[in-house]
Write a structure and sequence with these properties.
- The protein is mostly beta strands and 62 residues long.
- The chain has one domain.
- The chain has no helices and 5 strands.
- The protein has strands at 2-6, 13-17, 26-33, 40-48, 51-59.
- The chain has a 3-stranded antiparallel β-sheet, with no helix packed on it. It has a two-stranded antiparallel sheet with strand order 1-2.
- The radius of gyration is 12 Å and the shape is elongated.
- 6% of the residues are buried.
């Protein structure tokens, strides 16, 4: 599924494609580079039965 993400660094939006197994429940962490400024954004996803209920965006350099 495609999500619009606001970059942690430049505050521009870019697209990220996130695939989650329909039976998965828990948290996932992935790093995506911003398409505009190329800085890494760490996405922490809270997932319940394949549905992403919350996305937290943080500094991907940590």
């Amino acid at each position: 599924m495609e999500y619009c993400i606001t970059c942690y660094f430049c505050f521009e939006t870019f697209s990220a494609f996130l695939e989650v197994d329909p039976s998965f429940t828990g948290t996932l962490t992935e790093v995506y580079d911003c398409e505009i400024c190329c800085n890494p954004n760490k996405l922490s996803l809270w997932v319940s039965e394949g549905y992403v209920s919350f996305v937290e965006i943080d500094n991907g350099n940590d």
